[in-house]
Amino acid sequence: MSRSRFLPFSLLCELTFHCPLQCPYCSNSTHYSGWIKNELSTEQWIRVLREAQKLGILQVYFSGGEPLVRKDITTLIRTAHDLGFYSNMSTGGTLIHKELLKEIKEAGLDSIQLSIQDSRPDLADQISGVKKSFEKKIEAARLILECEIPLGINVVIHRHNIDRIAEIIDFAASLGAHRLELANTQYYGWALLNRKKLLPSKQQIEKASQEASKAKEKYKGKMEILFVIPDYYSPFPKPCMQGWGKIYMTVSADGTVLPCQSARDIRSLSFPNIRSDSLENIWWNSEAFNKFRGTDFLPEPCKSCPRKEIDFGGCRCQAFLLTSDAAATDPACIYSPHHHIIERIIQEENPAETPSEDKKFIYRNLKNSKTLQA
Ligand code: SF4
Ligand code: FES
């Protein structure tokens, strides 16, 4: 293995499993209730950041759960800043207040990504599972800009908001976002549980894609717009994580180190923990990071496919969740022998009409996580 092909660039620090919101498309593992009492201390996170710098990582993303739940968030941001990282924080925004933002800005945070569920208050609160969360997010956006922190907005797209994508884009622009990510739901974690109630139709995706292209022109030079096509509807899979163990690593709130934030759901792999190993050793020598590194592990048809250096056979998590084999060709690919699974899902789970009871989601909360584990 040539080491220069696998240099870590970006570290995702999932600081906590706690979150005041309950979005049914959360990509966190549904099993988090079993790990929530075992979160890393401030000192352990500082050690993670120091080791990440030694490893050559340049960017640090703080997320959760909700990173602002942590009382030491300012300390961790300051540590990242002092170590020379570019740092970003992904937040639901409902815990933001002016004093906290000032501290965060002063500690050296480079940008914030604020999640918004919808452009309409009632629908946004229905998805977040928390009343008045919409109002708090709007105020958070205002305060972020007032503190002169670059603002990115993330909206997860699904069956219930995709038809209003133009309205959502205009809404994000009215909030002053510098960047808007329209992220079609990826079906891992809680989103997989709720897939039947979230998956849009192909026609909805096509229309939304056209609207997003028009909006890119309209907001050119003012707001960058990213529209990510869901791979259930594209012929080839996404180059997930830009390749397993290639540039990204995630440290979960309990210290588990992952090549991808959803990888814990690959039950056939065990993952190392920062409590008992160094980041450097985990990156270069752990089984978890080496298992699907590069393309040598790929079966046919990927083995002899010219696209394998573009998409690396797709997503390992999706391959495992849909076929029970994490090394398999991602079923999203039209050449995959398992592609019929995706076709069946689209046919069975995506009625042309959206019945109203379709909004009875399984929300991401501790009670549901415990029930699912029992
Ligand atoms: Fe990608 Fe494999 Fe499909 Fe080729 S066969 S496009 S490498 S997933
Ligand atoms: Fe884990 Fe794609 S989401 S590898």
UniProtKB/TrEMBL annotation:
<dbReference type="InterPro" id="IPR023885">
    <property type="entry name" value="4Fe4S-binding_SPASM_dom"/>
</dbReference>
<dbReference type="GO" id="GO:0016491">
    <property type="term" value="F:oxidoreductase activity"/>
</dbReference>
<dbReference type="GO" id="GO:0032324">
    <property type="term" value="P:molybdopterin cofactor biosynthetic process"/>
</dbReference>
<keyword id="KW-0884">PQQ biosynthesis</keyword>
<protein>
    <recommendedName>
        <fullName>PqqA peptide cyclase</fullName>
        <ecNumber>1.21.98.4</ecNumber>
    </recommendedName>
</protein>
<comment type="subunit">
    <text>Interacts with PqqD. The interaction is necessary for activity of PqqE.</text>
</comment>
<feature type="binding site">
    <location>
        <position position="23"/>
    </location>
    <ligand>
        <name>[4Fe-4S] cluster</name>
    </ligand>
</feature>
<dbReference type="InterPro" id="IPR007197">
    <property type="entry name" value="rSAM"/>
</dbReference>
<feature type="binding site">
    <location>
        <position position="26"/>
    </location>
    <ligand>
        <name>[4Fe-4S] cluster</name>
    </ligand>
</feature>
<comment type="function">
    <text>Catalyzes the cross-linking of a glutamate residue and a tyrosine residue in the PqqA protein as part of the biosynthesis of pyrroloquinoline quinone (PQQ).</text>
</comment>
<keyword id="KW-0949">S-adenosyl-L-methionine</keyword>
<dbReference type="InterPro" id="IPR050377">
    <property type="entry name" value="Radical_SAM_PqqE_MftC-like"/>
</dbReference>
<keyword id="KW-0408">Iron</keyword>
<dbReference type="InterPro" id="IPR011843">
    <property type="entry name" value="PQQ_synth_PqqE_bac"/>
</dbReference>
<dbReference type="InterPro" id="IPR058240">
    <property type="entry name" value="rSAM_sf"/>
</dbReference>
<keyword id="KW-0411">Iron-sulfur</keyword>
<dbReference type="InterPro" id="IPR006638">
    <property type="entry name" value="Elp3/MiaA/NifB-like_rSAM"/>
</dbReference>
<dbReference type="GO" id="GO:0009975">
    <property type="term" value="F:cyclase activity"/>
</dbReference>
<dbReference type="InterPro" id="IPR034391">
    <property type="entry name" value="AdoMet-like_SPASM_containing"/>
</dbReference>
<keyword id="KW-0479">Metal-binding</keyword>
<keyword id="KW-0004">4Fe-4S</keyword>
<dbReference type="Pfam" id="PF04055">
    <property type="entry name" value="Radical_SAM"/>
</dbReference>
<keyword id="KW-0560">Oxidoreductase</keyword>
<comment type="pathway">
    <text>Cofactor biosynthesis; pyrroloquinoline quinone biosynthesis.</text>
</comment>
<comment type="similarity">
    <text>Belongs to the radical SAM superfamily. PqqE family.</text>
</comment>
<feature type="domain" description="Radical SAM core">
    <location>
        <begin position="5"/>
        <end position="223"/>
    </location>
</feature>
<dbReference type="GO" id="GO:1904047">
    <property type="term" value="F:S-adenosyl-L-methionine binding"/>
</dbReference>
<dbReference type="GO" id="GO:0005506">
    <property type="term" value="F:iron ion binding"/>
</dbReference>
<dbReference type="InterPro" id="IPR000385">
    <property type="entry name" value="MoaA_NifB_PqqE_Fe-S-bd_CS"/>
</dbReference>
<dbReference type="InterPro" id="IPR017200">
    <property type="entry name" value="PqqE-like"/>
</dbReference>
<dbReference type="Pfam" id="PF13186">
    <property type="entry name" value="SPASM"/>
</dbReference>
<dbReference type="GO" id="GO:0018189">
    <property type="term" value="P:pyrroloquinoline quinone biosynthetic process"/>
</dbReference>
<feature type="binding site">
    <location>
        <position position="19"/>
    </location>
    <ligand>
        <name>[4Fe-4S] cluster</name>
    </ligand>
</feature>
<dbReference type="GO" id="GO:0051539">
    <property type="term" value="F:4 iron, 4 sulfur cluster binding"/>
</dbReference>
<dbReference type="InterPro" id="IPR013785">
    <property type="entry name" value="Aldolase_TIM"/>
</dbReference>
